[in-house]
Amino acid sequence: MEIIKIQEAPSSNTVALEMLGKQNLSEGTVIWVENQTKGRGQNNNIWQSEPGKNLTFSIIFKPAFLKPENQFYLSKVISLGIADYVGLFCSNVAIKWFNDIFIEDKKVAGILIESLWLGQKINASVAGIGLNINQDKFPDNLSNAVSLKMKTAVPFVLEKSLRLLYELIITRYEQLKSNKFITIDKDYHSILYCLGQKCAFLKDNEMFKSVILGVEPNGYIKLKHDNDKIMCYGMHEIKML
For residues 235 and 219, is the Cβ–Cβ distance under 8 A? Predict the structure, then answer.
């Protein structure tokens, strides 16, 4: 495990992508930024994290073996790896579509994957991960955020946490490399947030509620509407509230 530790940078993904443009980073390389000044989340959201309290890092993957239609499986195994880690200390851990990890109804982690393509193959993927570890308080605009310390009342050693988390993510990634899609799908749906329940979504600035039936291999969420019509939506079409 190679860790490149940086005290301060806009975001770990920004640094990783810049480094990939200049040098050949090995698969599995970790870019760990202690203080992200412009942390990024999905859909241009901002990832806010108190410096020195949490884990904000990126892992370099080179999943050239993945077919384009299966690229969401990378998100699935990373989500499962994080859930495996959080589950060592907390119960009621869930993966909330599209890419968040929850403890009960509170968000403890988020993922942002950015890929570099070479033709029809993924040349490299940068998986940015933010995991709330030791932060005690969050801003008012992050009322649904939680940290491991808040749930366990125990402080964590960040580097030790990073190394164990990394091992669990790589273990899940090895499942993907071994084409264990059925196992991955089963484990993913076993902890999918609100599976089988009616949940609120936002589409074109209008809120609606539908039952979650699952997530398709391409990452689209499958919903059953009140009129029994079943439809699938991508992350840019709707937002889960």
Answer: yes
Structural domains of the chain ordered from first start: 3-190 (3.30.930.10), 198-240 (2.30.30)
Of the candidates 160, 149, 135, the residue with the CA atom closest to the CA atom of residue 49? 135
Q: Pick from 187, 10, 181: which is nearest to 81 by CA?
A: 187
The total of other beta-carbon atoms located within 10 Å of residue 41's CB is 17
Q: Strands 3-9 and 30-36, how do they pair?
A: parallel
52-105 tens-digit pLDDT: 999 999 999 999 999 989 999 999 999 999 999 999 999 999 999 999 999 999
pTM score, two decimals? 0.94
**Residue of 41, 47, 80 whose CA lies nearest to 176:** 80
